[in-house]
């Protein structure tokens, strides 16, 4: 699955065929020996992504290739239109983002790379006339900006619309939006989980090695399960949800021991709450308010 997501189709194909060979060999062995004993160890080929998923990722890479290598947004726009209902239900702006970039690209003289030309402006305006009316209910302001910018046409660089027409990251932004939306319609995150886990691990490694050295030198051991004695900072894109540490027990809350908010607004872990109240009214450890445990509400992070 990781290989498919990274666009390594031939490596994935080799991997799959070698797995199938291994499976066939093990099956043969299992048939000659005791069949039931080896059955559990055989890789289940059904867990491998189906041909349909493979086809989807091939489509995704074709569209990305056209976008990045040939500045051709049309396959992406077509895909967004074919999936407009699913995208709209996610509140996605993808189709408009793509069409706006197409407008800007046409305006700049398309593949001729000559900068703004009268012919480019004409092509962009024709494109807008043909394609933009469907966007008006939702993107009136953005469309007005594009049209307003035309008045500055020979000198957009000094206009308030500079950032729309000279955005160096426009193509990579739109490619990223496309990948994210495409994966989300397949029920997948934008990045491969294996890639995320391995990268986060590589970032954490120096801290963990240092920790190991210190523990060896001090002859101490860290035994708390599922928790590290030091914080390991990760870049913001690697933070997926907030965490809560109970101020009473100093433990991080979990699904089994969730954060609970008392009527006064203070939050502690459920286990701490149970210990404090013993089933009856109790005083909040952080303010003078008293409350009953049944008034506490679970906090979802
Ligand atoms: Zn309180």
Automatic annotation (TrEMBL):
Superkingdom classification of source: Eukaryota
Name of this protein: Uncharacterized protein
Organism: Aspergillus brunneoviolaceus CBS 621.78
């Amino acid at each position: 699955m990781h290989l498919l997501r990274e666009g390594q189709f031939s490596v994935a194909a080799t991997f799959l065929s070698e797995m199938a060979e291994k499976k066939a060999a093990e099956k043969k062995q299992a048939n000659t020996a005791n069949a039931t004993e080896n059955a559990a160890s055989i890789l289940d080929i059904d867990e491998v992504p189906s041909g349909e998923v493979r086809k989807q990722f091939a489509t995704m890479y074709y569209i990305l290739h056209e976008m990045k290598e040939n500045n051709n947004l049309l396959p992406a726009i077509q895909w967004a239109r074919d999936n407009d209902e699913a995208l709209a239900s996610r509140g996605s702006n993808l189709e408009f983002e793509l069409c706006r970039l197409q407008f800007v690209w046409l305006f700049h003289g398309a593949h001729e790379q000559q900068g703004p030309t009268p012919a480019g402006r004409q092509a962009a305006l024709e494109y807008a006339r043909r394609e933009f009316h469907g966007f008006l209910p939702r993107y009136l302001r953005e469309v007005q900006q594009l049209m307003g910018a035309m008045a500055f046409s020979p000198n957009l660089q000094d206009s308030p619309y500079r950032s729309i027409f000279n955005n160096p990251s426009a193509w990579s932004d739109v490619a990223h939006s496309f990948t994210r939306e495409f994966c989300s319609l397949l029920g997948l995150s934008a990045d491969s989980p294996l890639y995320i886990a391995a990268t986060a691990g590589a970032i954490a490694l120096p801290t963990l090695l240092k920790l190991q050295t210190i523990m060896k030198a001090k002859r101490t051991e860290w035994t708390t399960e599922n928790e590290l004695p030091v914080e390991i900072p990760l870049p913001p894109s690697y933070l997926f949800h907030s965490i809560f540490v109970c101020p009473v027990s100093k433990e991080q809350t979990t699904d089994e021991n969730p954060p609970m908010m008392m009527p006064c607004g203070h939050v502690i872990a459920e286990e701490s709450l149970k210990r404090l109240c013993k089933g009856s009214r109790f005083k909040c450890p952080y303010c003078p308010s008293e409350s009953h445990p049944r008034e506490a509400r679970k906090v979802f992070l």
